[in-house]
Each structure stands twice: as structure tokens, then as C-alpha cells.
Amino acid sequence: MKRLQKCCCCASTRTGSLITAILGIILSIATIILIWTVKKHTVSFSTFIFDKEFDKKLSDLDIPRIILTINLCFTILICTLLIVAINKRRSWLMLPWVVLGIVLAIGLLISILHTSITYYLDEHDHVIEATVILVGGILYLCLYLYLWAVVFSHYLDVRDEEERGRYRKAPYRR
């Protein structure tokens, strides 16, 4: 993969990485608030492993909300770690975000495809909703992958700088 030199053609990859981490924290907090303030049965959670009665019991006990909240708290933690890594110029602190980012991208792709296919196959006519989910989800995935590539490029730059060693760096980088 070719490294990106700029984020959005005007900012450095460092600035783009900081913006990505801050956006991750803001979106995670907003999602946690949304999960716990939306009416309980407006959103349907299903496991596809157990029967519908068991899924309803899990939803009644708020288990899906708790699991999503824990996942989002870890996202906040990893984005905070990314901010610290960028400021301290430590590549090994960026690595959890880089690895989690690509895993989340794969999960997002699977989720987009599963949700849109489920709506397409539904006996009710949900073609418009399925198309909006598919197109909007793919656009969101492309944006997410671009921001991941910005952070990954900055990670590679910092890692290369660490490998060169302190005395081989330019004087203004010490």
C-alpha cells in the first residue's frame, strides 16, 4: 500500500490521525447516549443463534445494550490511546487502533451486507430502505477505510522514524 502524505489534500497525516481519534471518541459517546435514550423496543436486537423468545429475554434484560456500551467504551479507550501515541510519537501505542480499525471495517462490511440482504429478502416491500442502507453503508465504509489509511500511514512514518534511531533523525525532530 502506498503511504498517504496528506489527509484530505491539505492536512498532515498527524492532524488527520488526531481528527480521526477525536471523531471516534465523539461518535462513541453519542452512540452510547443514543443506545440508552431511545425507546427500548424501537431497535430490534437478534442473535440469529437462539430462538426469538430467548432473544426477547436478552433484550428485556438490556444485555445487547450493555455489550454495545462496553464495546464503545473500549473504542473510547483505544482512541484516547491513539491521541497519546500521536503526541508522544510512539508507534506501538498506535498499533491497537490500527489492528482494531481493520477488524471493524471487515465487521462493518459484513453488517452492511447482512442488513441490506435481510431487507431485500423481507416479505414486506423494503427495497428503498435496503438500497439506502447498502449505498450509505458502502459510502461510510469508504470514508472509514480512508481515515484508517491516514492513521496507518502516520503509524508507518512514526515506526520508520523510531527505527532510524535518535541520532540519525534530523535535528528538528529530536
Write structural notes for this entry.
With 174 residues, the chain is mainly α. The protein has one domain. Helices cover 74% and strands 2% of the residues. The chain contains five helices and two strands; from the N terminus they run ββααααα. The chain has helices at residues 13-37, 52-60, 63-88, 91-121, 127-164; strands at residues 6-7, 11-12. The chain has a two-stranded antiparallel sheet. A hairpin with a 3-residue loop joins β1 (6-7) and β2. α1 (13-37) crosses α5, α3 (63-88) runs antiparallel to α4 and α4 runs antiparallel to α5 (127-164). The chain crosses the membrane at residues 21-38, 66-86, 98-121, 133-156. Keywords: Membrane, Transmembrane, Transmembrane helix. It holds the Pfam family DUF4728.
Short recap of the structure:
The chain has 174 residues and is mainly α. It has helices at residues 13-37, 52-60, 63-88, 91-121, 127-164, and strands at residues 6-7, 11-12.
What does the largest sheet look like? 2 strands, antiparallel
Q: How would you name the oligomeric state of the polypeptide chains in this document?
A: single chain
Shape: elongated
Strand order of the largest sheet: 1-2
Task: List the keywords.
two-stranded antiparallel ribbon, 2 strands, 2% strand, 74% helix, mainly alpha, single chain
